[in-house]
Amino acid sequence: MRIRPSLIGAAALILLLCSASPARADLTAFVGVNATPSNHGLRGFAIGTGLMVVGFEFEYANSGEDIDATALAPGLRTFMFNGLLQTPVAIVGFQPYATAGGGIYRETVSITDQSETNVGVNVGGGVKMSLAGPLRLRFDYRVLTLSGSPLHSTVQRFYAGVNLKF
User: Fold this and answer.
1) Residue 128's beta-bridge partner residues?
2) Which of 36, 66, 73, 124 could bridge 155 with an S-S bond, Cβ 3.0-4.6 Å?
């Protein structure tokens, strides 16, 4: 009896799909800084899921205005959907990742009553550092490119947060 190659391929695909690791999720609460045009506070959260190397997340971040004599740093609120490429497991307690995505932003300047709502994209990367059990620290750096007419079309952002893997 001869087995056709297409049957072997189909059987291998079924076995591969059945043996894939279950989807994992994580939740991060973070604080940080928007570094454009000057450092001003940032806070937010991210929730994501992934299979081994590829992941997806939704991230909300909000930084308030910083109005001083030297620089006008507008308030910036972002809602981003991102893809992640990450190592499948932590390496010596560290799981590095690269990310890119896009979404909507809202920039506001209250003293001039200006606001801008449009789309933006982001690229960046970071690391999730194991602490104990499902608890990790997360460090992230992003460069956002904002469309439309924002005061600053390129924004750099860094944050640190507590991450819970489940």
Assistant:
1) 95, 138
2) 36
Q: What sign results for the dihedral spanned by CA atoms 98, 102, 103, 107?
A: positive
User: Given CA atoms 44, 140, 87, 130 in this order, what sign does their dihedral have?
Assistant: negative
| Gap between the Cα atoms of 48 and 56, Å rounded | 5
Residue 9: phi and psi, rounded to 5, are -65, -40
Sequence-separated (6 or more) residues with CB below 8 Å from residue 26: 47, 48, 49, 128, 136, 163, 164, 165, 166
Minimal CA–CA distance to 86: which of 78, 75, 77, 96?
96
pLDDT, one tens digit per residue, over 73-124 is 899 999 999 999 999 989 999 999 999 999 999 999 988 899 999 999 999 9
